[in-house]
C-alpha cells in the first residue's frame, strides 16, 4: 500500500484507535474487537510489551485487510524497528525532525505531534503528512482545532486527547482530518475483564458519529 493510499484510508475511516494494552495478547484481542466494529486501522503504541512483535503478527494475520501503524515513536531508531516489523505509518506524540526525515526517506506516512501553532507548523513544514495535536484536551479540545484551522487550513490535523462519544462530532465539525482515540475506544477495563464486545460496540458508535458529523458538515457547507 502506497503512502497516498495509507493516508486515504485513514482519512476515509476518520478514526485512529490508539492501543495501549498491558500485553501483546490483549492488544490482539483489541484489534479483533475494533475490526468487528468496522474500524480497520490501528496504532499500536511502543508502550505495549513486545509492540514490534504485535505489529509483525497483525501484518501477517490480516495482510491487506488491516492498516497497522506504530505509535509513541520517539526517534529514528525506534521508527526503524517498527518499519522492519511492517508498520505502515508512524506516529509520534511530539516533534522530532530526525524521525520525520527518516520515515520520509522510507516513503512511509508520518504523523508527527505538536501542541502549539509553532510546533504544529514546524511538523508540517518538516514533512509530516498528517499532524497530531496532543494533548488536545489540555488546550480547549474541538474549539482549539477550529481556531487552528483559521490560519492553518492546509494542515490536516488528528486531535488526540479528549476525544470521546460526547466530543467526537465537534472535533469533526471543527475540521479534523481524523480522530486519535485511546482509552475512550479501547478501555483497559474491557480487556482486563475479557469483554471485547464493549470495544466493538464503542467502535460502531464512534464510526456512526464520525459519518453523521461529516454528512451534516457537508450539508451545511453546500447550503452556504
Give your account of this protein's structure:
This protein has ten helices and eight strands. By secondary structure, it is an alpha/beta fold. An eight-stranded parallel beta sheet has the order 7-6-5-4-3-2-1-8, sandwiched between helices. Helix 2 runs parallel beside helix 3 (51-62), helix 2 packs across helix 10 (197-223) and helix 4 (76-85) packs parallel to helix 5. The longest helix is centred in the C-terminal third of the chain and has 27 residues, at 197-223. The radius of gyration is 16 Å and the shape is globular. The termini are far apart.
What is the overall pLDDT average?
A: 96
> Structural class given helices, strands, pairing?
alpha/beta
What are the secondary-structure elements, in order, as H or E? HEHEHEHEHEHEHEHEHH
Rg over CA atoms, rounded to whole Å, is 16 Å
Stretches where pLDDT falls below 50 for ≥5 residues? Answer: none
Most strands sheet: 8 strands, parallel
Measured as a percent range, the helix fraction is: 40-55%
Shape: globular
Oligomer: single chain
Record the strand order, biggest sheet: 7-6-5-4-3-2-1-8
Total beta-strand segments: 8
Residue share in β-strands: 15-25%
| Amino- and carboxy-terminal Cα gap | 37 Å
Describe this protein with a few key phrases:
224 residues, alpha/beta, 8-stranded parallel beta sheet, 10 helices, 8 strands, 49% helix
Give the structure's gist in a few sentences.
This protein is an alpha/beta fold.
Amino acid at each position: 500500500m502506497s503512502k497516498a493510499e495509507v493516508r486515504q484510508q485513514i482519512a476515509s475511516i476518520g478514526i485512529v484507535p490508539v492501543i495501549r494494552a498491558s500485553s501483546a495478547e490483549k492488544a490482539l484481542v483489541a484489534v479483533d474487537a475494533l475490526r468487528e466494529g468496522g474500524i480497520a486501522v490501528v496504532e499500536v503504541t511502543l508502550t505495549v510489551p513486545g509492540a514490534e512483535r504485535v505489529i509483525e503478527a497483525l501484518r501477517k494475520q490480516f495482510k491487506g485487510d488491516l492498516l497497522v501503524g506504530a505509535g509513541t515513536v520517539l526517534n529514528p531508531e525506534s521508527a526503524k524497528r517498527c518499519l522492519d516489523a511492517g508498520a505502515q505509518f508512524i506516529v509520534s506524540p511530539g516533534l522530532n525532525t530526525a524521525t520525520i526525515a527518516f520515515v520520509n526517506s522510507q516513503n512511509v506516512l508520518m504523523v508527527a505531534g505538536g501542541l502549539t501553532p509553532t510546533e504544529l507548523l514546524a511538523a508540517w513544514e518538516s514533512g509530516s503528512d498528517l499532524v497530531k495535536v496532543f494533548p488536545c484536551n489540555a488546550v480547549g479540545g474541538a474549539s482549539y482545532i477550529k481556531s487552528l484551522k483559521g490560519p492553518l487550513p492546509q494542515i490536516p490535523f488528528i486531535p488526540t486527547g479528549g476525544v470521546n462519544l460526547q466530543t467526537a462530532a465537534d472535533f469533526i465539525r471543527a475540521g479534523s482530518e481524523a480522530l486519535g482515540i485511546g482509552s475512550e475506544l479501547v478501555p483497559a477495563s474491557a480487556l482486563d475483564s475479557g469483554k471485547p464486545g464493549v470495544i466493538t460496540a464503542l467502535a460502531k458508535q464512534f464510526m456512526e458519529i464520525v459519518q453523521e458529523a461529516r454528512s451534516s458538515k457537508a450539508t451545511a457547507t453546500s447550503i452556504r
